[in-house]
Amino acid sequence: MTPLRPVVLVGLRAAGKGTVGRVLARRVGARFVDLDREVARLAAPRGAFRARAGHLLATLGEGPFRDIEERALVEALGRDGSWVVAAGGGVVERAANRWQLAERARVVWLDVPLDVLAARLLEPGEWRPPLVPGADPRRELEVLDLRRRKHFAALAEVQLGLEAPVPAPDELALRIERALREGEGVPGP
């Protein structure tokens, strides 16, 4: 199966969009784009150190970061071929991005319980800067969820409302593939 329009995975930080997106792209024979990596690529001059998106958000500030993210989204959705895109958690913050997603993509929302996300953010080796220094990850996620949930819901063609324990990425990719096949215009066996 190859999607006719890009499939874009959305959800809060640490929802597994990149991990599941890579598996889904492999399953459906599509190319994979991690929007956070594209933001890092666009933010760094050629050959310069490419900071992770979380570091860029912390150092550039929200406005400049979202400007770069918007450009990266437009580029990702404008590429020829079949794509699976893992979007940053805040991509829905801008109306222009929501319009791009609604008009040019098939949106899949990974709706992961906040307790699971907070635990993932505290795992060793996982570094994502808090939006508020010293903030409790669970409380920060609650604030983001309140702000973004309505946008995720409005855009999502597929919503995976997950419970703990969250299924493995392979299982989630299979669920997404099945849900997209049930929708319109998706070729497959």
Q: What features would you describe in this structure?
A:
With 189 residues, the protein is an alpha/beta fold. It has a single domain, classed as Rossmann fold, CATH 3.40.50.300. 51% of the residues lie in helices and 13% in strands. The chain has eight helices and five strands. A five-stranded parallel β-sheet has the order 2-3-1-4-5, sandwiched between helices. Helix 2 crosses helix 4 and helix 6 packs across helix 7. The longest helix has 19 residues. The C terminus is likely disordered.
What is the topological layout?
Layout (H helix, E strand, L loop, with lengths): L6 E4 L6 H12 L2 E4 H9 L9 H8 L1 H17 L4 E4 L8 H10 L1 E6 L2 H8 L15 H19 E6 L7 H14 L7
Helix pairs in contact: 1-8, 2-4, 3-4, 4-5, 6-7
- What is the string of SSEs from the N terminus onward? EHEHHHEHEHHEH
> Architecture, CATH level 2?
3-Layer(aba) Sandwich
Distance between the termini: 7 Å
CATH overall fold name: Rossmann fold
Strand order of the largest sheet: 2-3-1-4-5
Our count of helices gives 8
The coarse silhouette is globular
Task: Please give the largest β-sheet.
Answer: 5 strands, parallel
Q: What ranges have pLDDT less than 50 throughout 5 or more consecutive residues?
A: 185-189
Percent helix: 40-55%
Rg (C-alpha, Å): 16 Å
Number of structural units classed as domains:
1
Category from helices, strands and their pairing: alpha/beta
CATH superfamily: P-loop containing nucleotide triphosphate hydrolases
